[in-house]
Design a protein that fits this description.
With 325 residues, this protein is α+β, with helices and mostly antiparallel strands. The protein is built from seven helices and seven strands; from the N terminus they run βββααββββααααα. The radius of gyration is 36 Å and the shape is rod-shaped.
Length: 325
Amino acid sequence: MSINEIPQGFRFAVQLDGTGSARSLEWSELQNGASHATTWIHCDYEDPQIQEWLERQELDALVIEALTAEDSRPRVALYSPGVLVGLRGVNKNPGAAMEDMVSLRVWLDPERIITLSHRSLASVKDIQQQLKTGRGPTSTQGLFSELCDRLEWYVSQMIDDYEDQVELIEQSDLAEDHLRRREGISQLRRRVVTPRRYLAPQRDALSQLSVEPPPWFNERILMHLKEIRNRLQRHLEDLDAVRDRTVIVQEELQAQVSDQLNARMYIINIFAAIFLPLSFFTGLFGVNLGGIPGAHADLAFLLFCGGLLVVGAGLMFLFHFKRWL
């Protein structure tokens, strides 16, 4: 294949003009390490042709391995003169679960930012739109900072959705449809697990980057990254709060189910206590042996039934007097 043939994994490339806009670059302009000041290149890391192109970009072998790895976690590693960053973003693709977070790998140096993801990210599309309207970032570090900000913004939307769901569960009548509500609570708790798995190391990565930045990062960008890091910390606390609230709701639901079961069992036990002596008398007088009192009397059956009614009514009065019924 010719190096100028456009690979399927090539998404776009632009050259920032320093005023908030950008000029689109063709794939042929990126070959052979062609130099373009302040360039943003976005590709699919699973494409072998993109991997071959990365090997021609004078990047460290460890950087290329990290950028094209099958799986990754949020991380930061400094490689002079740039920095390698792994991030995760909310999955906004149609039909996908938000918590199935998309991996985004970033190589950042003073004149170039390379971003790679297999699935599309709404954050990347947002910055593209900003550049088209002339309101985009003006440098690679500014673009990276804006990208982190957009990733965090979609995380906040996801957590707001979780909080709305748990609030609906809390305000609903837990006495109805226990099975469906238990399933909803369990599903929400499972959904919270995956974002927290990635957001905690992502917070740590941004914290490390803001404490030990590349020398060409300016103070304004560092302050912005610290603010994003603080917002991620709040999101983690919100996720923990959602998880704790689901635990409380689940415990309340289990307590209600247990109380209802105990109340029903109590009623059954009361009736069992009433019918136990009645069953004893009917069993005793029902034996087929000679000498049973009243066996030959015409009114014996009526008198026996009347006696059972008296015993049953007496037991019910006793239970009511004792406040057991």
